[in-house]
Design brief:
Fructose-1,6-Bisphosphatase, Chain A, domain 1; about 270 residues
């Protein structure tokens, strides 16, 4: 598999650009989109999400037919290569539908050892983040690295959703603010993880997140010299889990303050 990572990365970059172009076309005519709700009123999906995921899946299948796939809108498909592509066609659907720039196409890949490839493309911003195991991380082809320093050295990205009790999220924010952390929420967890890799954020944390939201970002952070909380593999990868990625100097403190290892705390 190692000898094929470069080929897969190059193809994932090409596909992300094609997918981003299609997403941008829909974005520029979003008043015509049919929008549906999923789990709750703010969990949205449009035909743009589904069309972009189909483009990505078909392109990956044509290039790498033995690889498995897991996507937000169209579920899982099996493979025999030991590598699974993890796809979020439009991460940040709410800002996307609201006409804001904070959304992206996220294409990641993982194997039994964890994240292998990460490509995150923000078409409105004109930024493409890319990484592959052992090959470093880049933004528009230029090498990037995680921010140095501790939790107070920069802004922290935060995410939260209805999968955990609101009171527990409040406790987490209280603990972070009492530790003098400054935080921001931007609407796309995948994009904020990319910004950790790019040295723009000191870290990102979310109590429950899906694999398709974080796998590409995790690959980017690891190759940029940061640290991440392990995400479950195998069948467990289909279920939401805690997500934390940060600079080496901030990771341990964030892990302690967020209490993600205390499963009962988040029920």
């Amino acid at each position: 598999m190692t000898r094929d990572i470069g080929t897969r990365l190059d193809r994932a970059i090409e596909i992300a650009r094609q997918a981003g172009a299609l997403a941008l076309e829909h974005f520029n005519h979003r008043d015509r989109l049919v929008i549906e709700t999923k789990r709750h009123a703010s969990d949205l999906v449009s035909q743009a999400d589904r069309a972009v995921e189909v483009l990505i899946r078909e392109a990956l299948s044509a290039s790498f037919p033995d690889d498995a796939q897991l996507g937000e809108e169209h579920g899982a498909s099996p493979g025999s290569s030991g590598l699974t592509w993890v796809i979020d066609p439009i991460d940040g659907t709410a800002p996307y539908l609201g006409g804001l720039p904070g959304w992206c196409v996220s294409i990641g890949a993982c194997d039994a050892e964890g994240p292998v490839i990460g490509v995150i493309f923000a078409p409105v911003l004109g930024e493409l983040f890319s990484a592959a195991r052992g090959r470093g991380a880049r933004l528009n082809g230029v090498p990037i690295s995680a921010m140095p320093g501790d939790l107070r050295s920069g802004l922290l990205g935060i995410g939260a959703n209805d999968r955990v009790p609101a009171a527990r999220v409040g406790e987490m924010l209280t603990a972070l603010m009492e530790a003098d952390a400054a935080w921001v929420r931007y609407g796309s967890g995948a994009l904020m993880l990319a910004w950790v890799a790019g040295g723009r954020l000191i870290g990102y944390c979310e109590p429950r997140m899906s694999a398709w939201d974080c796998m590409a970002g995790y690959a980017l952070i690891l190759e940029a010299g940061g640290r991440v909380l392990d995400f479950p593999q195998g069948e467990a990868m289909r279920l939401p889990a805690p997500v934390l990625g940060a600079s080496p100097g901030a990771f341990a403190e964030l892990e302690r303050l967020c209490r993600f290892s205390e499963t009962a705390h988040w029920r």
